[in-house]
């Protein structure tokens, strides 16, 4: 089976960021190019994984990530 993800470098890794979709702030832990399809046809997206103050990580589209002020 082929890999369904790959890590992508990002200038804000390990920095405090905000998810503009939810307004939640946290630390950008990883950016991953991931096959999000559950069918035979692949659908790749770049997802940002952010660790919030609670310690839980969540994913959002990488375009939703901006530096926190």
Brief characterization of the structure:
The chain has strands at residues 5-7, 16-19, 25-35, 44-52, 57-61, 65-67. The protein has 69 residues and is an all-beta fold.
Name its key features.
69 residues, mainly beta, SH3 type barrels, six-stranded antiparallel β-sheet, 6 strands, 51% strand, elongated
Question: What topology emerges from the helices and strands here?
Answer:
Elements: E1 5-7, E2 16-19, E3 25-35, E4 44-52, E5 57-61, E6 65-67
Antiparallel strand pairs: 1-3, 2-3, 2-6, 3-4, 4-5
Structure notes:
With 69 residues, this protein is mainly beta. It has one domain (5-67): SH3 type barrels. It has no helices and 6 strands. It has strands at 5-7, 16-19, 25-35, 44-52, 57-61, 65-67. Strands 1, 2, 3, 4, 5 and 6 form a 6-stranded antiparallel sheet that branches. A hairpin with a 4-residue loop joins strand 4 and strand 5 (57-61). It is elongated, with a radius of gyration of 13 Å. The mean pLDDT is 93.
